[in-house]
């Protein structure tokens, strides 16, 4: 088959990506991720029985966000690619305590890891690191652990599942992650 036709069929889900000539290791890894079934209390977006991630209100005035926890550990940058390619989303950005608590609870329930990637990055800057969300949304909330964000290097950010605090982590570390879709 022509590469364009294979790509179109793969995007439509008619031909598995791994069977197409376009498959790459990064795309094949994406097949290992599993969406969560909607807990009843968060079933507002789609009809009952539809497969979807739990919902939680997002920043005021921006509607509702959906999240999916990916248990398969990846580096920060690979996690970003999976969120974008598989779910047409991004790593989660957090703008209030309620969302942070929701995502902590979600990650704690659906992973056995102590940390999960979220979409924050810190850049070295004196006297304190400068932080930003990879989706470009405003930096208007943080929940750093004492001593974080770390100065001196570029770090990615992980949400601790035991206390909801954020930690600066080497971006090459492989962790589960939360996509905002």
The SSE order reads: HHEEHEHEEEEE
- Helical run tally: 4
Helical content band: 10-25%
From the spread of the alpha carbons, the general shape counts as: globular
Please state the CA-atom Rg, rounded to the nearest Å: 17 Å
How far apart lie the N and C ends? 32 Å
Biggest sheet: strands side by side, in what order? 1-2-8-3
Provide tags for this entry.
single chain; 181 residues; alpha+beta; 4-stranded antiparallel β-sheet; 8 strands; 23% helix
Chain-wise SSE layout:
Blueprint: H1 3-12, H2 25-30, E1 55-57, E2 64-74, H3 76-87, E3 90-91, H4 97-110, E4 115-123, E5 130-133, E6 155-160, E7 166-169, E8 175-180
Antiparallel strand pairs: 1-2, 2-8, 3-8, 4-5, 4-6, 6-7
Your description of this structure?
The chain is α+β, with helices and mostly antiparallel strands. It has helices at 3-12, 25-30, 76-87, 97-110; strands at residues 55-57, 64-74, 90-91, 115-123, 130-133, 155-160, 166-169, 175-180. Strand 1 and strand 2 form a beta hairpin. The two termini are 32 Å apart. The relative contact order is 0.17. Mean pLDDT is 75; it is low at 3-9, 13-31, 34-53 and 57-62.
In short:
The chain is of the alpha+beta class. The chain contains 4 helices and 8 strands. Residues 3-9, 13-31, 34-53 and 57-62 have low confidence and may be disordered.
């Amino acid at each position: 088959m022509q590469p364009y036709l294979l790509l179109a069929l793969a995007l439509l889900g008619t031909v598995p990506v791994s069977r197409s000539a376009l498959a790459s290791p990064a795309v094949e890894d994406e097949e290992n991720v599993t969406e969560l079934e909607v807990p009843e209390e968060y079933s507002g977006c789609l009809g009952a029985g539809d497969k979807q991630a739990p919902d939680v209100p997002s920043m005021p005035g921006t509607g509702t966000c959906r999240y999916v926890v990916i248990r398969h550990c990846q580096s920060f940058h690979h996690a970003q690619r999976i969120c974008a390619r598989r779910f047409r989303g991004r790593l989660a950005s957090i703008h209030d305590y309620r969302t942070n608590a929701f995502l902590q609870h979600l990650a704690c329930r659906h992973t056995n890891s102590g940390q999960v990637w979220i979409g924050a990055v810190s850049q070295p800057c004196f006297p304190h690191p400068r932080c930003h969300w990879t989706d470009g949304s405003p930096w208007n909330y943080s929940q750093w652990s004492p001593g974080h964000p770390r100065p001196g290097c570029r770090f990615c950010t992980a949400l601790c599942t035991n206390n909801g605090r954020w930690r600066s982590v080497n971006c090459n570390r492989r962790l589960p992650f939360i996509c905002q879709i």
